[in-house]
Amino acid sequence: MAISPERLPPHLRSDLERLSQVQEMLNNVVLRRQQYEIQLKEIESAINELNAAPDDVVVFKSVGNILVKTTKKKALEELQEAKETIELHIKTLQRQESLLRKQLDDLRKKVQKELSEIRGEGGA
Question: 2 lies in a domain?
Answer without folding.
Answer: no
